[in-house]
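From the methods appendix. Each design record in this collection lists the tokenized structure first, followed by the designed amino acid sequence. Records were kept in a plain field format so they could be parsed without special tools. The example shown here is representative of the layout used throughout.

RECORD:
FOLD TOKENS (420 positions):
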């Protein structure tokens, strides 16, 4: 329950943090757009004021004290000249002044004609060849003004957006990160749910198996003690087969239960300082009782290899690796346990002459329930938990375990044990 609440808290905090950053980014983007809009308006005012000054040059009129530039809307400005001027001169001044203040967006302008009492369309100035033939737009007449011109920026919004590309790219990236985060969390929760269902199923299934299996073992052992069975060689043989297979099945069930238990709650290691060599010899002796034809050797120049580990689990690691190597061998099993002792680590190499593993399957041999599809795998009983258990114990000890194919045949599994 504590772990579940902790995971939920982490997920919620992560989600709140990303949403908070995204909201802040969007607010900053909005503020940056407002600033760019003000800067653009200021540039236009400065440029149009300079145009008005130049239109007054060489005339008998002076520039009025009141600001001649009026902003009617976001993209529409009116400039009161109060003096007659030539359209060609206006076009030249507009281009030169806009270029000075770095206004690189399309614009169009029109002038008031006293004779016709209407706005006369002047020109559409495009920064690209695409919009050269832009159709004219209606410019409304302004009251109380006689000598003036109006200018419009039809692409002001897109121009401002283009100057904020970095902000929008960053905002889009944050949105993508948020979506990926949400998708990852949903996937993790689904996988966690499926994992819990699988673990519960395995626990229930194995417990249900153990009850009838215990009854079979008790009944078989009692049956074996009966004089009738003992006097009949065939019946005694069949009874021994039942007992042996029941014990084997019981061992498999215990393995699955232990694996499920270790997934649910971490294993507690009882680490002690010990000599590795006597443990290896004991395991080899036990293995050779089971597989008399196997040739197992310890290859080292050391007389003592002291390290720190959990004795019980280290025994299981060595037994699992040797048992696995013998099972997957189609000839007389020859396995060497090489020990290399260095200043800050001990290298343990289990080299066999088995059937080997293809390079594409090699990275997955420590995965839970993974069994390599082959004829030999079909012959060997198991659930794919042996090497998974070995990897898990090595990880808990902070040891590194790797596997690689030998140049000729078989594989070498190496365990690196830090001693510093």
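DESIGN:
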């Amino acid at each position: 329950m504590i772990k579940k609440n902790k995971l939920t808290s982490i997920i919620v905090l992560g989600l709140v943090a990303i949403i908070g950053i995204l909201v802040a980014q969007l607010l900053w983007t909005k503020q940056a757009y407002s600033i760019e809009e003000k800067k653009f308006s200021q540039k236009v005012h400065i440029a149009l004021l300079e145009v008005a000054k130049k239109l007054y040059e060489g005339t008998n009129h002076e520039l009025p004290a009141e600001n001649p530039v009026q902003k009617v809307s976001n993209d529409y400005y009116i400039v009161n000249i109060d003096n007659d001027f030539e359209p060609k001169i206006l076009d030249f001044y507009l281009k030169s002044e806009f270029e000075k203040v770095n206004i690189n967006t399309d614009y169009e302008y029109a002038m008031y004609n006293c004779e016709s009492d209407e706005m006369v369309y002047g020109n559409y100035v495009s920064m690209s060849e695409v919009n050269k033939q832009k159709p004219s737009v209606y410019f409304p007449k302004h009251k109380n003004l006689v000598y003036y011109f109006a200018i419009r920026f039809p692409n002001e919004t897109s121009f401002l957006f283009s100057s904020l590309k970095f902000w929008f790219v960053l905002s889009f990236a944050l949105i993508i990160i948020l979506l990926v985060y949400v998708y990852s969390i949903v996937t993790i929760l689904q996988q966690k749910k499926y994992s819990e269902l699988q673990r519960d199923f395995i626990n229930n299934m194995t417990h249900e198996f153990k009850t009838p299996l215990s009854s079979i073992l008790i009944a078989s052992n009692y049956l074996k003690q009966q004089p009738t069975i003992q006097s009949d060689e065939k019946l005694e043989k069949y009874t021994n087969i039942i007992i042996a297979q029941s014990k084997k099945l019981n061992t498999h069930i215990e393995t699955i239960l232990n694996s499920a238990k270790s997934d649910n709650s971490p294993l507690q290691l009882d680490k002690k300082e010990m000599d590795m060599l006597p443990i290896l010899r004991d395991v080899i002796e036990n293995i050779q009782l089971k597989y008399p034809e196997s040739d197992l050797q310890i290859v080292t120049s050391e007389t003592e290899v002291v390290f720190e580990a959990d004795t019980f689990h280290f025994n299981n690691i060595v037994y699992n690796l040797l048992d696995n190597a013998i099972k997957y061998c189609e000839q007389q099993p020859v396995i060497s346990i090489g020990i290399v002792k260095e200043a800050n680590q001990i290298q343990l190499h289990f080299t066999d002459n088995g059937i080997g593993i293809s390079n594409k399957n090699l990275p997955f041999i420590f995965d839970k329930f993974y069994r390599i599809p082959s004829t030999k795998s079909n012959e060997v009983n198991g659930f794919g938990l042996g090497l998974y258990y070995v990897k898990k114990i090595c990880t808990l000890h902070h040891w590194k375990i790797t596997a690689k194919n030998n140049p000729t045949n078989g594989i070498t599994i190496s365990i690196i044990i830090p001693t510093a």
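APPENDIX NOTE: The chain has a mean pLDDT of 79.
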